[in-house]
Amino acid sequence: MHDAIAEASPWVRRFASVIPPEGVVLDLACGAGRHSALLASLGHTVVAVDRDISALGSLKDDSIQAQALDLEGSDWPLLGKQYSGIVVTNYLYRPFLDELPKMLCEGGVLIYETFADGNAEFGKPSNPNFLLKPGELLALAERSGLKVIAYEDIYLDQPKPAMVQRICAVKGHLKGCIPLQFGG
Question: How far apart are CA 92 and CA 103, in angstroms?
């Protein structure tokens, strides 16, 4: 599990501590569970969701519940669920994007990071369907009434060159304070 935590996104590591400790955190399109492991290590109960959860087999933690769900079917499989935090990285499926803020409890935190317009210059993903448009996460927060804690639409050179857009936003008000951190 330590290896998975070491692979967690610096953006998610930076803001995971502002997710309220009560409630459940959703790791959407969780892949191998690097963020599920990080969130569990911080004391959260995690629902790790992906189409194929076989990569989660190495994660042994009672606080991680894995669910195999089709996130791109005609119906949203998480309709009516509520979470204190939602983490999404390297995944974009626009038909259900607006459902995410609705799934946050009051004080819940959305941490989202994925590839953005211009990434085709550096490789995959290059399909515009999988690249955020300029300001798209800010627009999501605005139309959903989320308060933006931090936002970036930037070029990253690590772990590989990419254009990335990322946001940390809260529904309502944060319960507690954001720890002051310098650097990435």
Answer: 17
**Three-state SS for 129?**
helix
CATH number of this structure's domain 2-171: 3.40.50.150
In this model, does residue 145 exceed pLDDT 70? yes
Residue 174: how many other CB atoms lie within 10 Å: 16
**Domain ranges across the chain:** 2-171
Q: Are 86 and 26 in contact (CB under 8 A)?
A: yes
> Mind listing the pLDDT tens digit for each residue in 49-102?
999 998 887 777 789 999 999 999 999 999 999 999 999 999 999 999 999 999
Which residue in 28, 45, 3 sits closest to 113, CA to CA?
A: 28
Q: Which amino acid is at 155?
A: Y
Nearest CA to 89 out of 109, 104, 110 is that of: 110
